[in-house]
């Protein structure tokens, strides 16, 4: 194993370990903080694979925005210091089974798909220029479809959060109001 | 190898020295602007040694952790708040021709991403203190970061579009004098959003001392509190450095760019730091709703307008 592979494997161990702690810890805020560690290790993994741009965007969006949003939500609703007894759901074994099955399926697909094929890493292969060219030339249609999906969810969120937009009254109900 | 060691030593020295200089300047500038004397005896001349005395005082205080606090998170928080600014300092170029500790390709994104991580330290402190005022402060920190991160990233993207690169070094190389009017809106948005992210007055609602004591830092004392203070001043240095590099042409000056580049950078950073102090003295604290309104109703649309302006001119030229 080369040094790169060892670092990558270690980062993987940290990412998976922290992710397991996220779901097993009984302390709500600790779960969010372990998520930071997991995302950080993931970003480190991208760095080892020369995808510099993706790595820093991962830190900017997930650590800087998503986790902060999560922490804000936890603090706004409840932020108990210490363990919460009611964090375990009765479905934990079913959830564990689904998680393991999903992981097994994904790993099988990757292993079957690539076997022992190896991609040589070259410096700058994951730079912003290469990524931009790929997204806006080869993959421009999926990219635009995703944008439309995000726009739709944005509009939906605004509609849901605005209390001054009421459901349109039925014809009969409107007549009653006028009468 | 030697070059790397020298550069790292210089960055460490800058990290140790510049925040203290800003802190000292803040004491003296505020004292002059508000016509108050302040401590004038330590070290004889204008009380220059007061900062050293403060440092000694912080160092000899007892290390107190509240009984109900979450010990690990409580102790970790000052480090999480401080270290990111040291990392950002690594990528800020001070002069032409590789006068930077670490020349990263996507340097702009690195700087913004790592600066965002520093805020988690304040949120951790707010939660782990087991104090309702700290918790309120932590929430306000989180709310402030979420609203001001967006215009900051937009303003920085506008410069990246104009320069056609994400490298901080590359941005300064491409910089021309007419960028000053062209990117003016972006510069103001970036600087204001950065101030809000650092929780500097007038954006110091999260630490509002007259209503929630000292927000997330209420329960901290001694060295840990000093680390939070140091993080604030290091944050000022980093924000002024980034604004200089992105919007004010970094090491480019009216003459002797190559020889005196580092001096131009330092002068610009110094002037911006003075502006930060001046703003603190001049403006009253903004209310929480005013803060959110400024971010969403002014800075985000302004930064989008700047992005459009940059795009149009970039294509037209």
UniProtKB/TrEMBL annotation, chain A:
It is found in: Cell membrane. GO terms for cellular component: plasma membrane. The keyword Amino-acid biosynthesis does not apply. It is an enzyme of class 7 (translocase). One of its GO terms (molecular function) is quinone binding. It catalyses: a quinone + NADH + 5 H(+)(in) = a quinol + NAD(+) + 4 H(+)(out). Gene3D superfamilies: NADH-ubiquinone/plastoquinone oxidoreductase chain 6, subunit NuoJ. PANTHER family: NADH-UBIQUINONE OXIDOREDUCTASE CHAIN 6 (PTHR33269:SF17). Belongs to the complex I subunit 6 family. NDH-1 shuttles electrons from NADH, via FMN and iron-sulfur (Fe-S) centers, to quinones in the respiratory chain. Couples the redox reaction to proton translocation (for every two electrons transferred, four hydrogen ions are translocated across the cytoplasmic membrane), and thus conserves the redox energy in a proton gradient. This is NADH-quinone oxidoreductase subunit J.
From TrEMBL, chain B:
It is an enzyme of class 7 (translocase). It is a multi-pass membrane protein. The chain crosses the membrane at residues 72-95, 107-129, 150-171, 177-196, 225-249, 261-283, 295-316. Its EC number is 7.1.1.-. It catalyses: a quinone + NADH + 5 H(+)(in) = a quinol + NAD(+) + 4 H(+)(out). Its main location: membrane. It is found in: Cell membrane; Membrane. One of its GO terms (cellular component) is plasma membrane. It holds the Pfam family NADHdh. GO terms for molecular function: NADH dehydrogenase activity; oxidoreductase activity, acting on NAD(P)H, quinone or similar compound as acceptor; quinone binding. NDH-1 shuttles electrons from NADH, via FMN and iron-sulfur (Fe-S) centers, to quinones in the respiratory chain. The immediate electron acceptor for the enzyme in this species is believed to be ubiquinone. Couples the redox reaction to proton translocation (for every two electrons transferred, four hydrogen ions are translocated across the cytoplasmic membrane), and thus conserves the redox energy in a proton gradient. This subunit may bind ubiquinone. Belongs to the complex I subunit 1 family. NDH-1 is composed of 14 different subunits. Subunits NuoA, H, J, K, L, M, N constitute the membrane sector of the complex. This is NADH-quinone oxidoreductase subunit H. The gene is nuoH.
């Amino acid at each position: 194993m080369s040094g790169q592979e060892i670092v990558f494997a270690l980062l993987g161990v940290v990412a998976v370990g922290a992710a397991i702690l996220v779901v097993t810890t009984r302390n709500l805020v600790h779960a969010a903080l372990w998520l930071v560690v997991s995302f950080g290790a993931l970003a480190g993994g991208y760095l080892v694979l020369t995808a510099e741009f993706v790595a820093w965007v991962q830190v900017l969006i997930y650590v800087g925005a998503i986790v902060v949003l999560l922490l804000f939500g936890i603090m706004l609703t409840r932020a108990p210091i210490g363990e919460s007894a009611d964090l375990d759901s009765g479905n934990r074994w079913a959830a564990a089974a689904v998680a393991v099955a999903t992981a097994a399926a994904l790993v099988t697909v990757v292993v079957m798909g690539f076997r022992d094929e190896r991609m040589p890493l070259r410096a700058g292969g994951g730079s912003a220029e290469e990524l931009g060219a790929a997204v806006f030339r080869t993959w421009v249609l999926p990219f635009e479809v995703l944008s439309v999906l995000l726009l739709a969810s944005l509009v939906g969120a605004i509609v849901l959060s605005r209390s001054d937009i009421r459901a349109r009254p039925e014809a009969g109900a409107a007549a009653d109001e006028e009468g | 190898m030697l070059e790397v060691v020298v550069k790292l030593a210089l960055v460490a020295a800058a990290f140790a020295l510049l925040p203290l200089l800003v802190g000292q300047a803040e004491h003296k500038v505020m004292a002059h602007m508000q016509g108050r004397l302040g401590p004038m005896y330590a070290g004889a001349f204008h009380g220059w040694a007061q900062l050293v005395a403060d440092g000694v005082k912080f160092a000899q205080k007892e290390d107190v952790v509240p009984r109900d606090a979450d010990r690990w998170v409580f102790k970790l928080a000052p480090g999480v708040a401080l270290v990111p600014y040291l990392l950002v300092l690594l990528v800020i170029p001070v002069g032409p021709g590789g006068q930077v500790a670490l020349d990263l390709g996507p340097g702009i994104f690195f700087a913004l991403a790592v600066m965002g991580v520093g805020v988690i330290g304040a949120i951790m402190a707010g939660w782990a203190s087991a104090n309702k005022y700290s918790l309120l402060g932590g929430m306000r920190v989180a709310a402030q970061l979420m609203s001001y991160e967006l215009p900051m990233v937009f303003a920085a993207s506008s410069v990246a579009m104009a320069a056609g690169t994400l490298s901080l070094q590359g941005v300064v190389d491409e910089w021309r004098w007419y960028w000053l009017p062209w990117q003016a809106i972006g510069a103001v948005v970036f600087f204001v959003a950065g101030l809000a992210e650092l929780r500097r007055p007038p954006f110091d609602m999260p630490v509002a001392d007259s209503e929630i004591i000292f927000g997330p830092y209420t329960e901290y004392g001694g060295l840990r509190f000093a680390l939070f203070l140091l993080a604030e001043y290091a944050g000022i240095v980093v924000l002024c450095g980034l604004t200089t590099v992105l919007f004010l042409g970094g090491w480019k000056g009216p003459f002797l760019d190559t020889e005196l580049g580092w001096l131009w950078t330092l002068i610009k950073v110094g002037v911006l730091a003075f502006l930060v102090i001046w703003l603190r003295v001049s403006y009253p604290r903004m209310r929480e709703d005013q803060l959110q309104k400024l971010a969403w109703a002014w800075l985000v649309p302004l930064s989008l307008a700047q992005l459009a302006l940059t795009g149009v001119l970039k294509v037209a030229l």
